[in-house]
Amino acid sequence: MDSQIVLSHGSAWDAQQSSASHAASSDDVSANAASLPAVVAAFIPSFVTAVLFMVIFVVIRKPFRRIYSPRTYIDLVPEKHRTPSASTSHIDWIRALAKLDDKFILEHSSLDGYLFLRFMRTLIFICFVGSCITWPILFPVNATGGGRASQLDKLGFGNVSDQSRLWAHVIVAWVVYAFVMFLVARERLWLVGLRQAWELSKANASRLSSRTVLYLDPPKVAPLDGDLHLNYGQEARRQWVITDTGKLNVLVSTRDSTANKLESTEVSYLRKVNRKRARMAKKQGSDAILSEDAITELRPIHKDYYVFGKRTDAIDHLRHGLQEAARKVEENRQSCTADIHHNRSAVFVEYESQAAAQRAYKGNTTSHIMKPPNISIPSRLIGVPPKEVIWNNLAIPHAIRISRKSAANVIIALLIFFWSFISAFVGSISNVNYLSDNFEWLRWIQNLPDPILGLMTGLLPPLITSLLSSYVPIFMRYIAKKSGEPTTVTAELQVQNWYFLFQVIQIFLVTALSSSATAFIPEIISQPHQIPLTLAKNLPKSSKFYLTYFILQGLGSSAKNVLNYSDLFQYYFFDRTVNNTPRKKYSQYTSLKGISWGKVYPKFTNFVIIALAYACISPLVLGLACVGLALFYASYRHNLFFVIQPKLETKGRCYTRSLSQILTGVYVGELALIGLMGLRKATGPSILMGVLFIGTIIYNHVMNRYLNPLEDRLPARLLSEGNDEAEPLLAAEEGEASLDEARERSRLQQIGRGAHIPQQLLDPFARFFEPHIYTSHNIMRGYLKYSDLDEPKYKDEDLETAYANPSLTSKTPKIWLPSDDAGLSKKEIQANSEADIATTDYGAWLDEKGRVRFDEENLRQLPVWKDAVPY
User: Fold this and answer.
1) Which residues form the CSC1/OSCA1-like N-terminal transmembrane domain (predicted)?
2) All domains of the chain, ordered by start, with CATH?
3) Is 654 in a helix, a strand, or coil?
4) d(CA 589, CA 781)
5) Whole-structure pTM value
6) Which phi and psi angles does 222 have, rounded to 5°?
7) Cα separation of 605 and 595, whole Å?
8) How far is Cα 606 from Cα 496, in angstroms, rounded to an integer?
9) Which of 315, 567, 321, 521 is nearest to 418 (CA)?
10) Which helix (H) or strand (E) holds 404?
11) Which residues pair with residue 212 across a beta bridge?
12) Which H/E stretch holds residue 238?
């Protein structure tokens, strides 16, 4: 990067400001001469690494199918939802991916998984169309602009010195940014229609979660008995009261950990005995038998004070401890049940129908509950499956929840603020030319060979940036859950917001402006009118960093995403060392790789934000972003088809937020162009850019005003029970038409305009440019093939305990041992049964080497298998 690193407001900052206006019209040739070598230096190792990773992947994919293709065979995935794979050849996966449409993910895996792939396609489309608009116009304009830039920088805005050429940039900006705004609006409309059809399909509308509302701040004045209709409306059917179970949670955790210790100790004992027996059989023959004394000597010993104290049998000690822990759990459960009348922290309420639940969620009931307060934390949620609930957080009073949320925001703000010191250091590495010129002790850098210097300035900074930032969302997720978020989905959505701010501020603005947040954030706050000038002076000079950043990410990271060697090493390391019981091996085998939506969405949203910000300043960034995103799309497509089983379902809310966040790139790009036109004293172009900026603000406000309610809840007109001909999206008259009618209407309109367009071409254009017709609820229902699946069936016991805290209902874990040739597992089962501890050795065994095995082909028959209830 050719911008200057400044850590204070002293003379260095003043020097940067005084020289920036000159740099805007004529970049320093010597400083920019390394731009092409830096890009090439980033491309070559990234390309070689990507090819190497893919070769290794093709070779090892077949023998390690548990890591690379579990969704094609594992019993955890129902057969009808498995990804078809005709053979296990090395390249069959390529043929399978080519045949399958992305809708396969929607119909057989996850709504969010499908929407993420659509999000990636949308970003690619934005960058591709943007390149098609900008390259043919701006490349010639910039290249012949009269500046002194060289190599790749000659294609950027900095090479333009003729004011008359600035009109081209303004016109292109209007076209590109107007296209982006239209596409964002279209996608939001499309998503509203899809979500409405998805929510109202029989398979989803009849789920318990669809007709259940979570009240985080329920009324506490009325008695518990008989207050269901009084407080929650006449359509309320059932309630689950949540109380503070802090002590019980600890007791349950102690009980379960004791059971796991007992299981692990007994398995270790069985393995020791069988290994010794195997050694004796090897020496004395297969008839060798261990004596009872030899077996007794191998039993594990427990000492009260580890080294000192009374020696007792460890297995007997743990049996007694498990009995005692189970007894305490049952005693505490009774007191928790009695305390419900005096202490209710949250309440789940089931309503008679999805429509009734939606009315209660909006506050449109005759109950005594007030409408949701207008605060940053919602007092009620709808559509929450039990598996998404963070039970410990439900017991937090609403006022404390708000305080924790505020504290969490402060922590994240400080993290983002002080992370800039790291970003500033990374930025300084890419600017070693400037540093070596101004600091004598760094002059030795100028003597380095050009390839080494190219690696330092081109490859190393984005590599460090990518590595360090990967740990940030993990910390943010921890803070979100500690802040009192009631569900894993709301926590993930909070991570998405925080990580988006981190990505834009640190990965983009701090790095692009060649300063630290401790310098530019206070200045922007104190002088917001200087934002266009600041962007104008710094963005054109920082494009080289993002050229190499997109190359590194697109080639190296996407290939790494497919090879996923870290998961491979981790899986087999834990399988051979830590996971030494049937339960642990089963848990590892059945834990398919998930995906963190709060992490991946902001990363790629920031990709397109950077590309849009540079669209008219350095159009080459758009093209490389398009290629990089396409490579990432291919890698995630493979993983979602063959590897990933999403564990969170945000129902498209992550996609909605990211669509709105994309406009950040439009705002930054417009502000930068306003500043650049101001530096050139181009009055006409400046006015037009200002009009576009104001228009963008108005557009954003209007779209949020009309679409936010539709994105948050289902319209009442669609919830009328038994109404199969529900009104269309946004209640537009034309949306009432069927898909065929919509096509015919569009065709007649085109004919009326004198257009003679073939029908096969007309349909795609009509779908794209008439979203108010083609995204209506009626039409989107046909888009979902699985909308008429059978309604879920619930047992009475499933409904009674659906939203009960697991601490109140969970049973003592059943001890699962491997069977062995010595027959000791049967003796341990008998001893545990006498202590009222359920134990089995079904489906697991010790092989000839003493290793634990379990029946991987029949997971559903194993004692630890649990059928998932479709709540």
Assistant:
1) 38-187
2) 11-202+398-712 (no CATH), 208-244+343-384 (3.30.70.330), 247-338+811-861 (no CATH), 731-788 (no CATH)
3) helix
4) 37
5) 0.85
6) -85, 150
7) 16
8) 12
9) 521
10) helix 398-418
11) 350
12) strand 236-242
